[in-house]
């Protein structure tokens, strides 16, 4: 049942729900603006672990304040139910846009450039997004892209099963090293950004399977597909960018999201790429779990 109010906000309707939260569109009467409210479902309130994680998400989002991360306005509890109030992103998601077909190279480069600044800032701060995908890229009314759902995935423990499939994150965008111990690092986000870029340019993720485990295995065993087989008009250098972004070995991958975005911008500007080299690493930062 949809509540009439949450905190000081009047609930206007439910936007969606998942395994970890229910999301509502609401009106903040004091601030005189529409917002999004994310609520911990009542069926999870009995488990102190989920409540603690929700609180850590609030702290993580607050600590990661950045122009390309959806901002947190307020948080609290209503009738014992934790909630957070965030900016309403009226421009839809990247997933919405991709349902209408691939983006142009220039469009993709602009979006990746914005998101890369947020990811690099988060990595320097010791956080990992862990679920970069088109559903978690939202646009505001000026068409600027933002990363969403940043906090909860950056503070989870790797051994904890959090989804119905038993997989943390979304398999179509998960780095190969996550199939073995010690694979958690900022470079998994760089890989996911590369997988999302492939989808932005081609209309589909680089790997797909009928099961989550099958998709993970594909990331490990299958060669990196040539995006020009799906979009022949793309320049040859874009495949070089994707091959480094999706390198199976993390040390052969771009070592920052900004390095990926920089080469992508050069290709979009029709500038020839030099021999691609691994950038200065940000993967050695201490990760906050």
From TrEMBL:
It is an enzyme of class 2 (transferase). The keyword Cytoplasm does not apply. Residues 9-276 form the Protein kinase domain. SMART domains: S_TKc (SM00220). Keywords: ATP-binding, Kinase, Nucleotide-binding, Serine/threonine-protein kinase, Transferase. Its EC number is 2.7.11.1. One of its GO terms (molecular function) is ATP binding. Pfam families: Pkinase (PF00069). ATP binds at residue 38. This is non-specific serine/threonine protein kinase.
């Amino acid at each position: 049942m949809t509540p009439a109010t949450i905190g000081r906000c009047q609930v206007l309707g439910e936007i969606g729900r998942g395994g970890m939260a229910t999301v509502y569109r609401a009106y903040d009467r004091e601030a005189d603006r529409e917002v999004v409210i994310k609520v911990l479902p009542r069926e999870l309130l009995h488990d102190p672990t989920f409540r603690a994680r929700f609180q850590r998400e609030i702290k993580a989002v607050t600590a990661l304040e950045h122009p390309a991360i959806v901002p947190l306005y307020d948080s609290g509890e209503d009738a014992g139910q934790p909630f957070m109030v965030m900016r309403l992103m009226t421009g839809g998601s990247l997933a919405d846009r991709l349902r209408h077909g691939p983006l142009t190279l220039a469009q993709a480069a602009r979006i990746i450039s914005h998101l890369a600044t947020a990811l690099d800032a988060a990595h320097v701060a010791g956080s990992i997004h862990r679920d970069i995908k088109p559903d978690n890229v939202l646009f505001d009314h000026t068409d600027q892209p933002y990363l969403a759902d940043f906090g909860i995935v950056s503070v989870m423990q790797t051994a904890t099963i959090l989804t119905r499939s038993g997989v943390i994150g979304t398999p179509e965008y998960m780095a190969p090293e996550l199939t073995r111990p010690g694979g958690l690092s900022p470079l998994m986000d760089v890989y996911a950004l590369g997988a999302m870029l492939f989808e932005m340019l081609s209309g589909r993720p680089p790997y797909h399977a009928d099961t989550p485990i099958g998709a993970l295995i594909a990331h490990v065993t299958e060669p990196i597909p040539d995006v020009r087989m799906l979009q022949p008009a793309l320049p040859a250098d874009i495949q070089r960018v994707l091959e480094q972004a999706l390198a199976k070995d993390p040390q052969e991958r771009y070592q920052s999201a900004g390095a990926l975005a920089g080469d992508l911008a050069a290709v979009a500007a029709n500038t020839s790429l030099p021999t691609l080299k691994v950038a200065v690493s940000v993967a050695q930062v201490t990760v906050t779990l």
